[in-house]
């Protein structure tokens, strides 16, 4: 049986390879996926299906040129995994360099991600 931490680490490995289909394979068919932040950031908001999450990743790639993405600490608590990390990206179209810590919280049930919340210091994007 796959544990929650191994599913989450597999998702980050896939993201590092740019393999969005592999990430989508780790999601439940119905998923509660939400990036917290202001509407000015195009990829914030709620998603409920694999297709909508695929659009989320496309919106991230269109809005931000990722330079560094580092999951640094994994905190497992049963079905829930909290990940603390850091990223550096160039925001488009402004061309502004953004460095920020982030927090992602996953819920994994029966080997599939059923819920995800993401947040970072969105003010860093607009400074």
UniProtKB/TrEMBL annotation:
SnoaL-like domain: residues covered: 8-116
Gene3D superfamilies with a match to the protein in the record: 3.10.450.50
Pfam family, one: SnoaL_2
InterPro entries: NTF2-like_dom_sf, SnoaL-like
PANTHER family cross-referenced by the UniProt entry: BLR2505 PROTEIN (PTHR41252:SF1)
Name this protein carries in UniProt: SnoaL-like domain-containing protein
Organism per entry: Cupriavidus yeoncheonensis
């Amino acid at each position: 049986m796959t544990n929650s931490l191994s599913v989450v680490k597999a998702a980050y490995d896939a993201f590092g390879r740019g393999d969005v289909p592999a990430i989508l394979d780790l999601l439940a068919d119905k998923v509660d996926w939400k990036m917290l932040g202001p509407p000015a950031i195009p990829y914030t908001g709620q998603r409920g299906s694999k297709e909508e999450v695929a659009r989320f990743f496309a919106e991230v790639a269109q809005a931000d040129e990722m330079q560094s993405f580092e999951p640094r600490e994994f905190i497992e608590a049963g079905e829930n995994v909290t990940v603390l990390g850091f990223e550096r990206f160039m925001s488009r179209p402004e061309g502004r360099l953004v460095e920020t810590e982030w927090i992602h919280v996953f819920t994994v049930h029966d080997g599939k991600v059923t819920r995800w919340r993401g947040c970072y210091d969105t003010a860093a994007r607009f400074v």
